[in-house]
Amino acid sequence: MSALPVLESVAEPRPRVSVLLLCFRDADYIRAALDSAFAQTVPCEIIVSNDCSGDGTFEIAEELVAAYRGPHRVHVRKTERNLGVSAHFNDVMALASGEIIVMMAGDDIAYPERVATIVRAFDEHPGATVLGSDFDAIGSHGEPIQVSFRQRPQRYDFDYYVRIGRLIGLLGATMAFRREVYDRFGPLLGPIEDNALSLRGALLGQSLNLRQPLIQYRRHPGSVSGTVFARDEPRALATRRRYERTVQFYRGTADDLEACLRKMPELPRSKRRLAEQVLAMYRIEADAREAILLQPRWRWLGPVLRGLGQRGLRRKSAERALKLLLPRSWFGLR
Predict the structure, then answer these.
(1) Which GO terms describe its molecular function (predicted)?
(2) CB atoms < 10 A from the CB of 279, how many?
(3) Which residue in 17, 31, 104, 282 is deepest, having the highest Cβ count within 10 Å?
């Protein structure tokens, strides 16, 4: 946790919702992000945390918070060193006091009704533990853009992951969750937060995806998601970097899910079986991508055969078996 001073604008009583506005290299966007957080119609605790980016983001946020007068309890701080996505999230969670946690990125814009809509959804669905929403995509200058993103069903659990055979959770920038999703299991493992939180939510209850767009989700050069998925890197390197980072991401998510399962001996047997299938899917996919990236072709057979035996991965593994006949360059690797 940062030992740096915290600026605070205090409102009472203590809010039910904590908004975690996490930022890194967002100097061009943090004003719009903070203005949208201040515009929320439900009083919130807003924690603005910069992951030691050194580009002026923290100083801009510090200035805006010092000038803020309104209904929200607002803190601004920065880490003493760069932590990365999950470690930064864990660091800030130690400061949050709300029973509902709302995630926000320093380059996105929340619509004013976002928090109110999230609170109402959790109240109407007491079995839901994690929630996401649709979004409107924008570019660097706020212009509408199209992005490819598979729409989630409105309500889903572990069976959804196995049935569709895709390791995708809710979009982190749209997520909110009940505090127990974190407190029940402790700090996140792995480098990325969204899939781990989605799976924790599935262990404890159900996931919701609201069809209402609640944020403007910004895609731009230098964004965290662009870095994770190598969108901004030269084409010759992008596929390799994406494979390397996905291996780390899948293994970290699997480690987190496995640790959570150990802490839930009371989990019903049917749900545990589904969760273990999802865990196996993450392990197999990580091993398969690592094999394709680094190992001779005969070493690909192990993950392919394991995937063919896994209900959620049969189609993908059959497609991967065909890659045994193709040169690596055909799918972007050297």
Answers:
(1) hexosyltransferase activity
(2) 19
(3) 104
1 within some domain: no
User: Looking at the chain, how many residues does it have?
Assistant: 334
Count Cα atoms within 13 angstroms, Cβ side, for 287. 17
Residue 317 included in any domain: yes
Given a contact cutoff of 8 angstroms between Cβ atoms, the answer to whether 128 and 45 are in contact is no
Work out the number of other CB atoms within 10 angstroms of the CB of residue 317: 21
More reliable by pLDDT, 92 or 162 = 92
Amino acid at 142: G
Alpha-helical runs (H) found in the chain: 30-38, 57-67, 85-93, 114-124, 158-164, 180-183, 194-204, 224-228, 235-262, 269-294, 301-308, 314-323
Average pLDDT over residues 174-199: 95
Three-state secondary structure call for residue 76: strand
Tokens matching residue 300: 């690909």
> Are residue 166 and residue 119 in the same domain, yes or no?
yes
Name the residue among 92, 128, 100 with its Cα closest to residue 15.
100
Pairwise CA distance, residues 173 & 138, whole Å: 13
Read off the pTM: 0.90
